[in-house]
């Protein structure tokens, strides 16, 4: 898979080297799949345009994700604390592409102890927490006067028609990021130690997993940089430009997901065939 058209300024090999230098897993355990389900539930609800849809019951994931455990260590990091410290970094303003790239690597340094799937899922958790808190009062404003007051207090645009294009573009990006992260989660769960596959094929797929993780983190960071445009949605020109940037990013990520999904499926099939021998 060629990521070069989607990663500007930096070469793929340089990025992979930087990512591997920042990767130092210490055995921390996180049920990435279950947390990703919860993240997807939150974002799907707050990003929908139909405000008449009811809130579904939350998933029962408290036992699995309340604590992020470090194996063979007394240290523990709670999920809220992990997401909070990630959010602090992601909400720092970035001026231009170079600063976004730099901040992306800062996040990978912050997440160095985690597996690749956990890195991506935790960043999406920070995204869901931020946009959930931002958009939920707007979503509930027409049926809940308290939510309407919160939205007004924070000077948020209550009429969704005012920011529909921006919201649709953001939904496109989020859906693509979640789908890519599902591929990363699936790949991390494959039992490579139990089988022998072509080293070149596995190595290429692993490199693409690293780059996909990078793009998910970078894209999530870019999405949070859009918040000022959302709060100034009355400025039509800026709003359209922001929506256009998100749409372009969303289509790029969808293309990446298509290729990555094929590679991960091929790995899974090869492993399945080997185990049947």
UniProtKB/TrEMBL annotation:
Domain Sieve element occlusion N-terminal per the UniProt entry, residue ranges: 11-273
Keyword vocabulary terms for this entry: Membrane, Transmembrane, Transmembrane helix
GO-annotated biological processes: phloem development
InterPro entries assigned: SEO_N (IPR027942), SEOA (IPR039299)
Membrane-crossing segments per the record: 120-142
A Pfam family reported for this protein in Swiss-Prot or TrEMBL: SEO_N
Protein name: Sieve element occlusion N-terminal domain-containing protein
The organism of origin for this protein: Arabis alpina
């Amino acid at each position: 898979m060629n990521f070069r058209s989607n990663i500007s300024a930096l070469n793929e090999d340089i990025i992979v080297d930087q990512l591997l230098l920042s990767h130092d897993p210490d055995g921390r355990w996180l049920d990435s799949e279950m947390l990703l389900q919860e993240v997807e539930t939150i974002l799907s609800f707050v990003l929908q345009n139909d405000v008449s849809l009811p809130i579904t019951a939350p998933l029962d994931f408290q036992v699995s994700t309340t604590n992020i455990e470090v194996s063979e260590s007394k240290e523990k990091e709670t999920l809220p604390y992990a997401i909070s410290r990630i959010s602090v970094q992601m909400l720092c303003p970035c001026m231009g592409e170079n600063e976004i790239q730099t901040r992306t690597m800062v996040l990978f340094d912050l997440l160095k102890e985690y597996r690749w799937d956990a890195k991506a899922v935790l960043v999406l958790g920070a995204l869901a927490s931020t946009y959930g808190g931002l958009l939920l009062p707007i979503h509930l404003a027409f049926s809940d006067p308290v939510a309407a007051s919160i939205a007004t207090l924070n000077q948020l645009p209550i009429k969704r028609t005012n920011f529909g294009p921006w919201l649709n573009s953001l939904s496109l990006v989020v859906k693509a990021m979640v789908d890519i992260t599902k591929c990363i989660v699936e790949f991390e769960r494959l039992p490579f130690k139990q089988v022998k596959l072509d080293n070149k094929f596995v190595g290429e797929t692993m490199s693409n997993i690293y780059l996909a993780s990078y793009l998910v983190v970078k894209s999530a960071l870019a999405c949070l940089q859009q918040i000022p445009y959302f709060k100034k949605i009355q400025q039509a020109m800026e709003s359209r430009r922001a929506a256009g940037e998100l749409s372009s990013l969303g289509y790029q990520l969808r293309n990446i997901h298509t290729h990555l999904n094929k590679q991960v499926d091929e790995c899974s099939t090869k492993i399945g065939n080997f185990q049947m021998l």
